[in-house]
Amino acid sequence: MSEISLRIDGESVAAKEGMTVLEAARSAGISIPTLCHHEKLEPFGGCRICIVEAESRGATRLVVSCVYPVEKDLVVRTRSPKVDRIRKTLVELLLAHAPDSPELQKLAKEYGSDRDRFEKEASFCVHCGLCVRYCAEIKKKNAVGFVDRGVRKEICFIPEIAARECNACKECFPLCPTSYLQACFVLTEALAFPLASAGG
Amino acid sequence: MDKARIDQIVDRHGGEASALIQILLEIQRENHWLPAEALKRVSDRLKVPLARTQHIATFYKAFSLVPRGRHEIHVCMGTACHVRGAQRILDTVEDRIGIKAGETDSELKFSLETVNCIGCCALGPVMEIDGKTHGKISPAKTADVLNGYK
Predict the structure, then answer these.
(1) CA torsion angle for A79, A83, A84, A86 (degrees, to 10)?
(2) Who contacts B144 (Cβ-Cβ below 8 Å, separation ≥6)?
(3) Angle at the Cα of B116 (from B79 to B145), degrees rounded to 5?
């Protein structure tokens, strides 16, 4: 594996080929905010919060750092007025769905997002996919998945698998940035297998 | 739709997971909708997680997870059809078969949908049943056409 050197926020960072910009930054102790990223999981590029400015061969572009591979002499800026503005709006859009999520509130404070900028549509799920991907990639159980698409997209437990696997695992619960996952599980449990959980 | 028929369709595609959408489309075409058992059977046979099959079956509008009628009626509500009285056609159809747009009757004979344009505006107002186009249709003719379906 060849070493690639790039600059992130003015610092010279050495990275291995195939690493993403986010991984390179984190290995150098530079923090980039994320919502849908998890080190054990494949990059997803869903939340776009980790967007950064990347400059190569004189051109500056906005790229999503968790899915953008490092390249030689790339100049990355993790904070700039443009990046901050985009993150501010992204958080505002997500806050319309999950206004009281602690993680979103933290980001909102950092980037000055207005909690009430967009009309509330409390679906609670921010489609980060952490639960779905964790269950599929790490646990290989696929007890929870996405259904539908666009504005109607939501997570959904497969009752038969959930009844068998979930009570003993629940490892996805702490991953959820909004606690909607727990609510979804309890609802599935109440509808599909109330007795199994009560020990009956 | 029985298991054997599903297996037959899966086998025709060589049991390849990459043929998932084609297999679901074939089941949809034959059965008019995708029952939970069919999704499970296809998932088992292709070794694709049910969560994934379910995601795909809910993602595409071509699939239905609720029972659909044997005949699919599409009434065009596009601009050209609209100005030529598509609403009256739709009202007649709804009246005649007793369901609203987006619904299926209890005998599973008809499913009714509105569409925004089927691309033959010169024939407006247009109604399409099972892919057959009925153009320049009037409320009276609509009733005749519907009577021709069993």
Answers:
(1) -160
(2) none
(3) 95
Fold classification of B71-147 (topology level): Glutaredoxin (3.40.30)
Classify domain B3-59 at the CATH topology level: Arc Repressor Mutant, subunit A (1.10.10)
Total domains present in chain A: 3
Structure-token pair, residue A126: 């921010």
Amino acid symbol at A157: F
In this predicted model, what pLDDT tens digit does every residue of A95-108 receive, in sequence order? Answer: 999 999 999 999 99
Q: A25 with A68, same domain?
A: yes
Question: What residues of chain A score a pLDDT lower than 70?
Answer: 1, 196-200
CA-wise closest residue to A193 among A162, A170, A147: A162
Q: What CA dihedral angle connects B121, B126, B127 and B133, to 10 degrees?
A: -70
Q: What whole-number distance in Å separates Cα of residue B20 and Cα of residue B131?
A: 24
Interface with B, mutate which of A131, A147, A172, A188 (most B CBs under 10 A)? A147
Contact criterion met (CB < 8 Å) for B52 and A161: no
Number of CB pairs, chain A paired with chain B, less than 8 A apart: 33
Question: Which region holds residue B84: left if phi is over 0, alpha if psi is between -120 and 50, else beta?
Answer: alpha
**Digit-coded pLDDT (tens) for A29-62:** 999 999 999 999 999 999 999 999 999 988 999 9
Tell me whether residues B52 and A145 touch, CB distance under 8 A.
yes
CB contacts of A148 in chain B (<8 Å) are 58-59
Joined tokens for residue A31: 């923090």
Mutate which of B44, B55, B65 to test chain A, going by most A C-beta atoms within 10 A? B55
Cα-trace Rg, chain B: 18
B50 and chain A: CB distance < 8 Å anywhere? yes
